[in-house]
Amino acid sequence: MNEPATVLVIDDDPSICESLRRLFDGRYQVRIADHGEAGLVAAQSPPYPDVILLDVRMPDMSGYEVFKALNGRPRVSKIPVIFITGAGAVKDEEKALEMGAADYIAKPLRPSLVRARVDAQVELKQARERLEDENVRLESVIRARMRENETMQSATIAALASLAEVRDGDTGHHIARTQAYVRLLADYLKHLPRDRDELTECNIELMVKSAPLHDIGKVGIPDQVLLKPGALDAAQWLTMRHHAAMGAEALERAERQVNARLPFLHYAKQIARWHHERWDGTGYPDGLAGDVIPLCARLMAVADVFDALISVRVYKPAMSFKAAREIMIEGRGTHFDPVVLDAFLDQFDAVCAIARAQTDRDLGQTVSATHAAPMAAVNQNRTR
Q1: pTM of the entire structure?
Q2: Has residue 201 been placed in a domain?
Q3: Considering the domain boundaries, does residue 143 fall inside one?
Q4: Could you tell me which residue ranges the Response regulatory domain spans (predicted)?
Q5: Are 157 and 151 in contact (CB under 8 A)?
Q6: 242-257 per-position pLDDT tens digit
Q7: Is residue 52 one of the residues assigned to a domain?
Q8: Number of domains in the chain
Q9: CA nearest 344: which of 319, 325, 360?
Q10: Which tens digit of pLDDT belongs to each residue from 161-194?
Q11: Which CATH number goes with the domain that contains 320?
Q12: Residue 295 maps to a domain
């Protein structure tokens, strides 16, 4: 059984207090405070009032002073207050409503009017609390559904990315490492003037979530090309280059089929299609140059190339971190966005720490630098 609502009467007139106690006896729990300070204490101690009846004229603190003090205390600031004013005190009534009082009642008190006014405020407060409780419940349900959707989305991304990685002979650690590199670079660049507007926390999360799909188009590349040891001939290289466009087009088709624009796919399509573009315009599939290449793809280009260099592939051995770093430097301003590459170099120790934390047997951190080949020789095959 629910406890009855509580009415707090703050009034220095004993006769009014007693008449109000009798009026609500058996209907509400009535608490009495005979001056302002006592009223403040009572309002902030259980059972907390559902409605406060507050006299305007009291000797120690006026009702206005009590009301102002109540509004400064979060626990009681939302309790509806009905001012009790003197007969014909129009200014008191106006001031009470201007200050935010729920209502006012003029003396002499008329029992039926007082009861109706108090009943209305109790019902409004209880309805508001039920609505707030329901909102809290709905927000909890929504958060749970969002977590469930995000988990399903992440699992789908991981499954698709793993399919591409398995076909390419790579491991899941490549996905984890490149994601971490992208986050590291984005977190660094978000503090610089050029990219801070795009690199919001939300956009960074979407870019990181999208990163594993960068090579999803490799699912459509024949094994004899994808898994060929050594260099590809011209026709095979042309076939390999198609994976970037194929990946983006597959994601575009998926988006059309669900008939919805998914924020993470916005970046996933850009990364898949353009992470092999080069800063100087000599990349593929569209020959984009400079900052026409989306920032997410420029970040992915640095992350993907570095990780490919330090990893064993069917067409090459792994390089040491030091050798890979030299290769990356050679690509500054030609292959890579200079600002992104500078961020990579500035954070190189952190990049290496990520690589060591997500180790593979094929990771080349201890491989001799003699594996490093001239830039032109490794351009074609290092990130098939």
Answers
A1: 0.62
A2: yes
A3: no
A4: 6-122
A5: no
A6: 999 999 998 888 888 8
A7: yes
A8: 2
A9: 325
A10: 766 666 665 555 888 899 999 999 999 999 999 9
A11: 1.10.3210.10
A12: yes
